[in-house]
C-alpha cells in the first residue's frame, strides 16, 4: 500500500511540475499535502521497520484474509445453524408422529372394512341358507 502511495506521489509530483509549468504554477498544492509528501519516505521506512518488528515477534499472522474468514465461518457455523437444526428436528418428529397416526388410521380403516365385508358375506351366506 505504501509503495502505491509512493509511486503515486512520485507520479503526482512529476505531473504537477509539468502541469505547473504549463499553467504558470497558478494552482499550487496545499502546504499540508507537500509536507506529507516530503514525509512519505520516512513513513514508508517506519512502516517497514514496525512491520518487521511485528513479524519477528510472531504477531503477524501469515494466513490470508480469505483463509481466516473461512476458518472463522466454520467455527461459528455450528452455533449459527443450531436454531435451524432444532427447528428441523422438531418438524421431523411432528411429521413422523403424524405419519404413524395416518398409518394406524389406515390400518384401522382397512380392518373395519374387512370386518364389514366379512359381516356382509356372513349375512349373505346366512340369507342363502335360509
UniProtKB/TrEMBL annotation:
Q: Where in the cell is it found?
A: Mitochondrion
Question: Quick one: where's region Disordered?
Answer: 1-41, 108-130
Q: Pfam families per the record?
A: MRP-S27
Composition bias, kind Low complexity: at what positions? 1-12
List the biased-composition ranges (Basic and acidic residues).
108-122
Query: What name goes with this protein?
Result: Uncharacterized protein
- Write down the species: Ataeniobius toweri
